[in-house]
Write a structure and sequence with these properties.
This protein has 328 residues and is α+β, with helices and mostly antiparallel strands. Helices cover 31% and strands 11% of the residues. It is built from eleven helices and eleven strands.
Length: 328
């Protein structure tokens, strides 16, 4: 017999368990309706679909976990597995976060350090290489009316020393991006990126990857953190908020903890992707954070998952928008 799952269940045992579960999808209710629900007659049903759809639901149940515990092959499987883990972890007591990557073998590194040889001389602040890349990005945006209008629309332009530029650069730069890594509260957005690259292409030769973080994957920030004797080192669990460009990556305290940030300037992409940012001082090393598994998104299921996502509104245009001038 083939042993699957973390409980060592055989495929036959799992099939029996799913068969019992599918019995709950029968047309006869297992429980009486709540007392406040008026009884319905056959001639006046509110639910206007006959029971012919139930076998389809049963088929979905039997497909669950067909490739093993670590694999995801549909949107419903992703929801069941991630929500099951979250329920066991803290009964949905806090927000969970996700990240999708269309190639399973990648390390959890930001594009800025993935694209170059980089030596960090001081982990406590922004590097000269980052500032140089930022000035190039700002000149490209502010010097091009099409790019500027695409990012800011009719809203206010940011001053060049506003830290919100780091979040804009993360989403709109076609060369470097930043030391940050994108995460999202939307499992559907993460699933899209676990199946497709930014240009919409799908690589069916390799599995995708779905990270599920059961809690905030990094240390947050606050304008007034608790300090030792008011002015000493930070002793609270959050950093002091930094709002200027050169101070934004300033680190006090431990260099080991990842940092978690919300966009200062909530641009269209951050909103569409339900996006947040995580980074760590030593960003040339893979991000250190608790990740459940992560899951493999089965390569042969990528296109079907993308079709499922499109049917509920999670298309490339919705997630990324239509900015032809930037790298997609």
């Amino acid at each position: 017999m083939n042993t699957i799952g973390h409980r060592g269940e055989t495929q036959e045992i799992l099939t029996i368990r799913l068969a019992r579960l599918s019995g709950r999808c029968g047309s006869t209710p297992l429980d009486d309706p709540p007392s406040h629900v008026p009884p319905a007659t056959d001639a006046a049903r509110d639910f206007h679909i006959n029971d012919g759809w139930l076998p389809i639901v049963e088929e979905e149940l039997f497909r669950f976990n067909r490739y093993g515990t670590e694999y995801i092959a549909s949107c419903s499987e992703a929801l069941l597995k991630c929500h099951g883990i979250k329920r066991a972890y803290d009964q949905f007591g806090n927000t969970m976060f996700f990240r999708g990557e269309h190639r399973y073998g990648w390390a959890l590194l930001p594009r800025f350090s993935r694209n170059r040889e980089l030596t960090i001389e001081d982990c406590h602040k922004v590097t000269p290489q980052e500032l140089d890349a930022m000035r190039r990005f700002q000149e490209g945006v502010l010097g091009d009316s099409t790019k500027s209008a695409s990012i800011f629309g009719d809203g206010r332009r940011l001053g060049t020393e506003n830290a919100g530029w780091w979040h804009l650069m993360q989403h709109y730069d076609d060369v470097d991006a930043t030391r940050m890594i994108d995460v999202t509260t939307s499992i559907f957005c993460a699933l899209y990126f676990a199946c497709a690259d930014w240009d919409g292409s799908v690589d069916e030769s390799v599995d995708g990857k779905l990270y599920m973080f059961p809690y905030q994957p990094g240390r947050g920030d606050t304008p007034n953190p608790e300090r030792f004797r008011k002015t000493g080192p930070i002793i609270s669990g959050e950093d002091e908020t930094q709002s200027t460009l050169e101070d934004y990556f300033t680190v006090e305290g431990s260099l080991e903890y990842p940092r978690f940030r919300t966009a200062i300037y909530r641009n269209d992409r951050a909103l569409a992707q339900d996006g947040y940012f995580v980074w760590q001082p030593m960003f040339t090393s893979p991000l250190k954070t608790m990740q459940i598994l992560p899951f493999r998104v089965y390569r042969d299921a990528k296109r079907e998952i993308i079709a499922e996502l499109a049917s509920i509104g999670y298309t490339r245009d919705r997630i990324l928008g239509n900015h032809e001038w930037i790298r997609q």
